[in-house]
Amino acid sequence: MKPPVYPFSAIVGQDQMKLALLLAAVDWRLGVLLRGDKGAGKTTTARGLAVLLPEPAPFINLPIGATEDRLLGGLHLERTLKGDPALKPGLLSEAHHGVLYIDEINLLAAHLGDALLDTAASGVNVIEREGLSASHAAEFVLLGSMNPEEGLLRPQLLDRFALAVDIMAPVEANERQIVVERRIAFDRDPINFVADWSQQQEMLRGKISAARARLHSIAYSSEILAQISATICEKGVRSLRADLAALRSSIAYAALTDDECVQAHHVETVLPLVLAHRTKTSGHPSSQPPPSSLKQPQAIPRVEDSGQEVLERIFSPRRIEAPIIHTTFEEPATRGTGAATAASNPGRVVRTRRTDIPKELDLRATLTQTALETGKVEPRLTDLHEKVRKPIAGTRYLFVIDSSGSHAAHERMRLVKGAVTSLLDRSFKKDDEVAMIVFRGTNAHVLIEPTRIKQDAATALEYLPTGGRTPLAHALDLAKSYVIPSAILVILTDGRANVALHKGDPWQETLEAARELRCPALVIDTENTAQPTGRAQILADVMGAKRVGLEDLRAEDDLILTRQSL
Fold first, then answer.
1. To which H or E segment does residue 475 belong?
2. DSSP string, 335-371
3. What pTM, to 2 d.p., does this model score?
4. Active-site residue 535, yes or no?
5. 478-496 confidence digits (pLDDT tens)
6. Which helix (H) or strand (E) holds 492?
7. What is the Cα–Cα distance from 134 to 483, expressed in whole angstroms?
8. How far apart are the first and last CA of the chain?
9. Over the chain, what is the mean pLDDT?
10. How confident is the model at residue 131 (pLDDT cuts 50, 70, 90)?
């Protein structure tokens, strides 16, 4: 007997998320990506959606560490060992007419994400294993959830989601109280709680069934298509999947609201869901370069909180040669993009090897060995082979950059920008990502959210203003939320902290924040060597980090950072 599922209709607030999921329930091709805070109800709502679909509607939760055979299907081990090779269905087959949910989809191994792409788009899964081939229908609602702080989703997979919703836990006290009250009531007596919401559930289930029935009869005009295309072009989105997603979503919304044709307000309602993950968000630079006039140092007046006007300037980078950063880990299992471990994110198969205790049996190699040695298909212990996978090896480069007024003297910001650019050029690899936090004035802010597009970081950095005070403590405190097990922290500062995070001593608060950062780190000392304070060295010592002077960076050196056991 399956345990009761929290009713979809009992979810408090989160109107955008519920709308996106209802649209996906009407048209299974509208996959939905849920991004946002932990504990905001993403998984609970996803499970609740499956209950509203026409029965039987399975809810399949794809484990991050699933193998390719488990996802797509593979040889039926028991029958094959008896001499009757047959294919065994995988999770995609089990998800047919239901929901395939992937929690922390940004941590999913790349080869599994690739395997999902064609099936999610076509609704047909083709299995080809060890000389056998089969296909089956796999029409399912694809739902993914993620916390962007743990790493971004690859663009190829991101664009396959028709809709995306950015979710935040409620911050209004009364709303949070209602959420907790309902959850406690469900936990104490789930059967009666579900019964209390049965009428609302039946109404939603009826709306979905009726909308599905009329989906293909909903009309749309060329004016509606023009409206969609014009808006998407205006936002600078290139992928035609955006246009298809907007039209399909508008049709599904019209069917859900019992309208006979798509109208302008349908399009206006769904477009934010279609464009949420396809347009640049705050923290990302525009694809258009800034005006050429900014390529020379510009004086920009800026008013600080104290009311005293300071001068900000923009310096273009001055290229310097920097070393390559290498990282070694005392615990190899912690290596991986987005904190995925080798066990949970195994990577693609690169070879096989013989072993008496295979962790993941390679059936083809095992049977081949058996047939060659004995002429039969009854494997012996000495014939067993296991699959060897190449581990995922991405790194998050987290740069914390001092752009305060002290770097305007002698135009040292040119060298700071050049050092960051050079480090990225020489150390950044295919599966890596970069994030940047900058600090000046009275606080720190995220210049670049984690991204795998290195050019975004270079563009934003080039036009970063310099000036104001040095809120180093705030920057390190902000960096804590972006540190993951695969992160390398690079801090460029002269250590002249003079803005308090709370109301204490700015430098002591800086050291307190630094002690809480647990990851391989490099402190690049940018202070003027003619007036040394030694604070960058103290900061490095507190963090257990390497310290190197800005002028000491050399291309022929290799920087090796070692992760300490926690």
1. helix 472-479
2. -SGGG--TTTS---EEEEEE-SS-SSB-HHHHHHHHH
3. 0.63
4. no
5. 998 888 878 889 999 988 8
6. strand 487-493
7. 44
8. 42
9. 81
10. low
Residue 239 buriedness (CB in 10 A; 0-12 / 13-18 / 19+): middle
Written as six digits, the tokens of 469 are 């005070």
> Token digits for 286?
């525009």
Separation between Cα atoms, residue 157 and residue 142, nearest integer Å: 12
Q: Per-residue pLDDT averaged across 520-528, rounded?
A: 88
Distance, CA of 488 to CA of 328 (rounded, Å): 11
Asked whether the beta carbons of 278 and 446 are under 8 A apart, the reply is no
d(CA 237, CA 223): 20
Rounded CA gap, 566 and 560, in Å?
Answer: 19
Calpha distance 431→105 (Å, rounded): 15
531 is written with which tokens?
Answer: 């007036």
CA count, 13 A, side-chain hemisphere, 378: 2
Whose tokens are 């936002």? That residue is 235
Residue type at 491?
I
Catalytic entry in 70, 214, 241, 313: 241
Please state, in angstroms and rounded to a whole number, the distance separating the CA atoms of residues 482 and 470.
Answer: 20
Structure tokens that stand for 196 in this block:
């209390």
Classify residue 70 by its DSSP letter.
H
| 22 φψ region: left (φ > 0), alpha (ψ -120 to 50), beta (else) | alpha
Pairwise CA distance, residues 368 & 384, whole Å: 10
